[in-house]
Specification:
- The chain is α/β, with parallel strands linked by helices and about 350 residues long.
- It has a domain of about 230 residues: Rossmann fold.
- About 40% of the residues lie in helices and about 15% in strands.
- The strands form four sheets. A seven-stranded parallel sheet has the order 3-2-1-4-5-6-11, with helices on both faces.
- Helix 6 runs parallel beside helix 8.
- It is globular, with a radius of gyration of 19 Å.
- Bound molecules: nicotinamide-adenine-dinucleotide and thymidine-5'-diphosphate (TYD).
- Nicotinamide-adenine-dinucleotide binds next to helix 1, helix 4 and strand 5.
Amino acid sequence: MTLSCIVTGGAGFIGSNFLHLLAETRPDWKVVNLDALTYAGNLENLKSIEARKNYTFVHGDIREPDQVEKAFAAAGDGCVVVHFAAESHVDRSIQSGIPFVTTNVVGTQVLLDASRKHGVTRFVHVSTDEVYGSLGDTGFFTEETPIQPNSPYSASKAASDFLVRAACHTHHFPGLITRCSNNYGPYQFPEKLIPLMIANASESKPLPVYGDGMNVRDWLYVVDHCEAILAVLEKGRVGDVYNIGGHNEYPNLFIVKTILKTLGRPESLIHYVKDRPGHDRRYAIDASKIERELGWRPRYKFEDALPLTIRWYQSQTEWLQRVRNGAYREYYAHQYGN
Ligand code: NAD
Ligand code: TYD
């Protein structure tokens, strides 16, 4: 079926991978990318897509109803929405929580209101396993696990999940929520663990490992995440939550050492630094619901996709350099002339 689809945050890491997936697998869809181009938004991620006839970029902030209207004017009433736009970095939320509340909470409500007004037929809210809080040495997050966020980032995501849930309950709004584990892959901003460590190791700079390096994350290749979101958009049950993960639990130190080994760099580059305040110890996802009900399964093995990711960053030295020196922020003015 041909759809008209608004993707918020399409210039970010996962959003841009999702737009690449749509261009490959749903070439007939009309796609509108609504993005404010914060520091995390990089239109250079979308160079191969921007000339497509059925792709439109709307430079707009989800907190501003007038700017959100422009996206609906381009997509038309009755479209679908996939909502990625967010402030996404835990460390930044510890420095300052306000942008997380305004974008993740207020912005999501603005988008929900506009979506109701324009008769959106499905709205996928892309959330995170971090809303469930932290696990001990055993167990997994299921969709029934209580919401117990520990950082300003995860608290703001949890609040946005509740707003989507409330819209479904109160207004019979066609919302669906996904909660995925940590992603890695192309186009991730090099402030997050994997791209930061690849970038620093490549330049023989210190690799800052928080605390004892034994915090565990459940890693999923970004393409697998995007395919899961597409499955939820097309086949998910309205009002439901779907956990997404690939059973790849590793301590941070293992990830960092694997990157160093793959790049042929010494472990002496590892620098143990002060721990993140309130650092969640372990995340692990039970994704059996989406596997059973929607037939989604991850296609990429961690042992293959981490080297693939490392090679991608090694081959994209210009992309990485322009992100690191800030030049990527000039691309919008250059391409779109304002
Ligand atoms: P990102 O930080 O790379 O990208 C966020 C995008 O949103 C950027 O393009 C930015 O410009 C845009 N944006 C920010 N504020 C905006 C606003 N007010 N209006 C419009 N656009 C705005 O994030 P990401 O890692 O791609 O994550 C995307 C979504 O997936 C987020 O909602 C995040 O919570 C969720 N998520 C991320 C991960 C992960 O490992 N990265 C895992 C699970 C869920
Ligand atoms: P991050 O990529 O920020 O994702 P999240 O906090 O959302 O899980 O961090 C992943 C893990 O890596 C987390 O346990 C914190 C740790 N970490 C470091 O040890 N050093 C770093 O420089 C960063 C950015 C993260």
